[in-house]
Amino acid sequence: MSASPTFLEEAANLLGPSGLTTDPDLLDPWLTDWRGRFTGMACALASPSGATQLSQLVRLCARHKVQIVPQGGNSGMVGGATPDGTGTSLLLSLRRMNAIRGIDPENRKVTCEAGVVLQTLHEAVAEEAMRFPLTLGGKGSATVGGLISTNAGGSQVLRHGSMRALVLGLEAVLADGDIFSMLTPLKKDNRGFDLKQLLIGSEGTLGIVTAATLRLVPAVAERVVIWAGLPSLKAARALLLHCESNAGDSLEGFEVVPERCLDFVVEYLPGARAPLAGRHAWHALIEVVADASNADNLREDCEAMMAGAFEQNLLEDAVIAANETQAEEFWLLRESIAPAERERGPAVQHDISVPVEQMPEFVEMIVPEVESAWPGTQAVAFGHLGDGNVHFHVIAPPTDDVSAWHEGDGKAISRQVYDMVVAWDGSISAEHGIGQLKREELLRLGDPVSLAMMTRVKRALDPEGLLNPGKLV
Fold first, then answer.
1. Domain span(s) for CATH 3.30.465.10 in the chain
2. How far is the C-alpha of 159 from the C-alpha of 136, rounded, in Å?
3. Which fold has domain 100-218?
4. Backbone phi, psi, residue 341, to 5°
5. Which CATH class is domain 5-93?
6. In the chain, where does the domain assigned CATH 3.30.70.2190 lie?
7. How far is the C-alpha of 269 from the C-alpha of 339, rounded, in Å?
8. How many angstroms from the chain centroid is the CA of residue 292?
9. Where, residue-wise, is CATH 3.30.43.10 in the chain?
10. Strand 90-93 and strand 44-46: pairing?
11. Radius of gyration over alpha carbons of the chain, in Å?
């Protein structure tokens, strides 16, 4: 590792013993991404206590030309929070900045710092009979700052949108150390560019998110969770339209899972079992919710909705969760797909989207085409059918050299997948971001004008390239 002793001494004096460490044992857990694809090095791990101290640290880094890699819960999928192998970057943890500054149930908003863990936020607002309507499998480690920086999605995007739709105000430290502060939300504000939206989804390359004001909704008073078996993804699309027509805004989640993924999870998860007795090519996990004003007839309405679906031959079988325990068991099956797949060995993961109405045909085309082109692989698609986003993963055949497979066949498979996605007018990144995993493909396939605009913005806000180098732009 290489770093100026003067820089490290000044940083240590600024942050104190609890705010800076060069201990390899303390650094090591944060130098590899969640999937184990990328491992880097860093000169130190910095953990500032607040935005003011972070501002001073960023100015110090700018003076010494030290690059900064911000990191939230280190639960990202594209290596966006992992430093490179030079050991010259400073790894920046915001996990000490974890205060919930205020919850305002009357105005349905919460202000919290970037290091607040998503599950902690859920629990805090629940005490005020409110909820933050974004959740995902990594809620126990993902932080608010990371979710904003990557414009995270999750299973409730169908109704509430991604983080872009949930951020009302933002605070961030820019590359020169200035603090951008727009935490107070205004329903109408037409003073030029919406600068907070520029920072959302920028993956820490334009500024470091330190706090946010987020939108809340009333707590769920009643929810109904349904597991349905279907003959095809096209049938799932028809069922989705039926549910949207009947449930309206009460329809909060509609996830699709192929039989192969369900088999993986049942094998991986102790005590797990398939919700339905028979086998079905596809499964749909449906969630319908209501607040206190609309809770009384929710179950009866859902029973009528599913009865109508049976009458129209939209599904083969279905079961409605009898209680909250069974509802959570259904969701655990969905949320365990990623760890169950990881247990099976190496894979290349593609977080992709195509126009919603084309998703069934796209999946029917791409799965056999990829498996035919790469014998021995297993291709699976699952995820958020309602917003046109599926996770298309290709599991490697048995191999003794994981790195060689990723660098060889894995990259070639991804190239083929992304070519198909672009040909269908889709996106190579629906909700996980670009990071370092997809940067090369973005440069290859992205619109030249859009790429040029992003590059100009990066140069304007971070001319020295100090923030999260090698990611996104």
1. 100-218
2. 15
3. 3.30.465
4. -70, -40
5. alpha beta
6. 222-337
7. 9
8. 29
9. 5-93
10. parallel
11. 23
Percent of residues in the chain assigned helix, strand, coil, to nearest 5: 40, 20, 40
Question: Is CATH 3.40.50.300 what the domain over 222-337 is classified as, yes or no?
Answer: no
Q: How far apart are CA 20 and CA 7, in angstroms?
A: 12
| HEC-encoded secondary structure of 215-254 | ECEECCCEEEEEEEEECCHHHHHHHHHHHHHHHHHHEEEE
pLDDT band at residue 1, thresholds of 50, 70 and 90? very low
Q: Which amino acid makes up residue 214?
A: L
pLDDT digits (tens, 9 = 90+) for 313-329: 999 999 999 999 999 99
Longest dimension (CA), the chain: 74
CATH topology of domain 346-432: Alpha-Beta Plaits (3.30.70)
Residues of the chain with CATH 3.30.70.2740: 346-432
**Strand, coil or helix: what is 100?**
strand
Q: Tell me the β-bridge partners of 351.
A: 391
Q: From the centroid of its chain, how far is CA 270?
A: 26
Q: Closest by alpha carbon to 92, among 175, 179, 178?
A: 175
* Structure confidence by residue, pLDDT tens digits, 234-288: 999 999 999 999 999 899 999 999 999 999 999 999 999 999 999 999 999 999 9
Q: DSSP secondary-structure letter at 121?
A: H
Per residue in 92-135, pLDDT (tens digit) is 999 999 999 999 999 999 999 999 999 999 999 999 999 999 98
Please give the sequence-ordered ranges of beta strands (E in DSSP) within 7-60, or none if there are none: 20-21, 44-46
